[in-house]
Amino acid sequence: MADQPKPLRIGLAGLGNVGAGVYKNLLKNRSLLQERTGRAMEIRKVAVRNPSKPRTVAVPDELLTANLDDLIEDGEIDIIVELIGGIDQAFTLVKSALERKKIVVTGNKALLAEHGKELFALAEKQKTPIYFEAAVAGGIPIIKTVQESLVGNRIDSMIGIINGTSNYILTRMAEEGLDYPEALKEAQDLGYAEADPALDVNGWDAAHKAIILASLSYGFWLRAEDIYVEGIQDVSLVDILFADSLGYTIKLLAVIRLDESGGIEVRVQPSLISNGHILASVNGVFNAILVNGDVVGETLFYGSGAGQDPTSSSVISDLADAAARLGDCGGRRTGFVPHGLYGQPVAIDDTVSEYYLRLQVADNPGVLAQIATVLGNLDIGISSMIQPEEHEEGIAPIVLMLHYATFGRMKEALRQIADLDCVRAQPVLMRVESL
Amino acid sequence: MADQPKPLRIGLAGLGNVGAGVYKNLLKNRSLLQERTGRAMEIRKVAVRNPSKPRTVAVPDELLTANLDDLIEDGEIDIIVELIGGIDQAFTLVKSALERKKIVVTGNKALLAEHGKELFALAEKQKTPIYFEAAVAGGIPIIKTVQESLVGNRIDSMIGIINGTSNYILTRMAEEGLDYPEALKEAQDLGYAEADPALDVNGWDAAHKAIILASLSYGFWLRAEDIYVEGIQDVSLVDILFADSLGYTIKLLAVIRLDESGGIEVRVQPSLISNGHILASVNGVFNAILVNGDVVGETLFYGSGAGQDPTSSSVISDLADAAARLGDCGGRRTGFVPHGLYGQPVAIDDTVSEYYLRLQVADNPGVLAQIATVLGNLDIGISSMIQPEEHEEGIAPIVLMLHYATFGRMKEALRQIADLDCVRAQPVLMRVESL
Question: What residues 23-82 of chain A have any CB closer than 8 A to a CB of chain B?
Fold first, then answer.
């Protein structure tokens, strides 16, 4: 196209777990992303500690540098993506970027929790934003949701399960009756917890995220000493079991709440929540944040709270926001439906799932054989069957769970089964949806 | 402020349930919204069928008009908010607005499902967007999430509970053992179902939303005849009970899925899902959409799928997007933390909740009285107590659930209890979080 806008030119700082994910996924969905944003994204330089180290992603040698200043001094770079972690070096990098009016994208929650006040003041002064979707809850778009989607709401509370390691440990204790050291060991073996798990299990990772979430809703930066933080190290199995017997689940919750006097309550503590609430269904390494707004009511946002791919999804969303900001005044293409990238609708008869089938049949021997024959001839497997004991005289219900088959094949089976003499009522068929 | 940008000038078409909510909530959070977006929002005209009808919101007479054309012809109006519902008149209104390059905000799913292709083509041509967050799932920001937050993802599937009426009916059948007519009657009595509930219970309301969701992910508009739609009218209690005994919950699901050959599967059917999945915990009138992206993995977005306030939260978010688009090239303030609107952190000792307290005490009479005395003196009520039978010789566990108290008061109680001779181990205290 003649008037193709210039590519977005990115300087990537850090090629660890998340940095490598951003590099990989920008390549993977390159054309889709360009189609949707109207702009190519080009990584111009990648700063790493040791350029000669072997890596999981193949970055051309000429992009690599060991010097963070190379990203800042490259006048062609529009955006600095800070994924080096730690505080001091990252702080210097982000400040230098803003001073040169380079947009910053970061996933560094500790940096923002400690220096957010100063960095965002500089961002305002420089009219150059910092995007930080990846800093809280990995792939869950909670930052954009609070900043944009809930813009018309006073945020009354945010209650989050925002440390995946802790949630994994508590889930395994509850599900398998493990004690804390066993569950921690398992999390470490699976790579869900670091060899030194302190920051995750002592609540401070969640506290950093809570500081950021509170700043979004209430517009000021809490200091670490303003927050009360307890971790999960002392949660014992016996309390998990007692809580369950009372109808509760124990979760590490970050609670951010506007109280009646207009004060802001922020704390991280293991807490009991009712089993019936959707937040109690957030298990394993998943995160979720329950947000109560005065207009929208109760909402919940759920997804992977960490990990290379989910976190890079958030970084890429921030890059698209940055691209729109640097582009023409039209901004993001929000409000337009993207151009077609995919094929045509699939006919319903070709769709595949498992099925639930309930029949009312004559209470005679041989009936099941007739039904199984119809299903077998159509190559539809039976995975389980229940035949409840209570039933009307002479008529027996049968419930069958069936293996994967096309809807078309299933409808043909249903037609043939309905025609059998032994079948006494219209069969009931429902899909079993695999999630 | 000297360089305050001009207010966003809105023409509101329709003052029914959602229209009245938008009017009310724009007023309610006026200063907060102006603080966050940097712009005032001013409703300049409100078109209603009958200007003299009594209303739940007090709209000044001089804003009211019975003529939709008045909104279009007012050159001062930047944005038309279409909340009149129906198809033909709304279609004419939206087309006229786009032709005049007035941005459109609409919550009209039937309009978009039927005329989306033509309207979005016109929007492209006019470089004037249509925002439609309120058209799908009420207050849940699913449109922005898919368009922006998941922009770097190929969407592999979206599986939604997106009709609140149907979900309420199925929930009540499952929880209370009601049959379908009883549950429908209850939903009607509570205002969750219309006198004529057809569009909700026959699946077509969900189907309209599914058409919109599919267009976002795959960039083309399905026709109604491309979709397979079944409602919940024929779901019987016996199937809900059998499904439960097999570990499943029946939900009305809209399924939008990219299949292996690149085709798009779109259907609405009552389906079985595993009880252990978070989607099975979506009950009552709530909606939720499970989105699987190739980068982000599994995410879920949950909230009120209908209603005056939740839906107006989405309309207001669209208005803020429109305001940013019409403003300077900076766009939304995303990437900056808003200015402070609220007070100071609350001290942890002043925060209030219910509590779980587990003690290990000497297995003697009189022990409970000592503990109850400490709690009573501090005005902390006991809501329930369990004393498990199995325990070590001479030491008995006691689990107490306590009424609301400040954390400070609770810590004082804990200190006094730990000092009692009868208490044999450090007490365990956890909050019970009310959600």
Answer: 25-26, 28-29, 32-33, 36-37
Taking the model in full, what pTM does it have?
Answer: 0.93
Q: Nearest-CA neighbor of B340 among A250, A185, A116? A: A116
Decide which of 3.30.70.260, 3.30.230.10, 3.40.50.2000, 3.30.429.10 is the CATH code for A348-432.
3.30.70.260
Q: What is the pLDDT of residues A203-261, one digit of tens each?
A: 999 999 999 999 999 988 998 888 999 999 999 999 999 999 999 999 999 999 998 88
Percent of chain B at pLDDT exceeding 90: 80
pLDDT for residue B205 is more than 70: yes
Q: A142-306: which CATH topology?
A: Dihydrodipicolinate Reductase; domain 2 (3.30.360)
Architecture of domain B143-305: 2-Layer Sandwich (3.30)
Cα four-point dihedral sign B181, B183, B187, B190: positive
Q: What number is the average pLDDT over the span B173-198?
A: 95
Contact A342 B228 (CB under 8 A): no
Residues B72 and B101: beta-carbon distance below 8 Å: no
**Does ipTM top 0.90?**
yes
CATH number for A8-135+310-326: choose from 3.40.1160.10, 3.40.50.970, 3.40.50.720, 3.10.20.30. Answer: 3.40.50.720
CA distances from B316 to A151, B9, B311 (A): 8, 13, 9
A275 to chain B: closest CA residue: B281
Say which residues have a Cβ less than 8 Å from residue A161's Cβ, sequence separation at least 6.
A167, A251, A252, A253, A254, A279, A282, A286, A287, A288, A289, A305
**A-B contacts (CB, under 8 Å):** 421
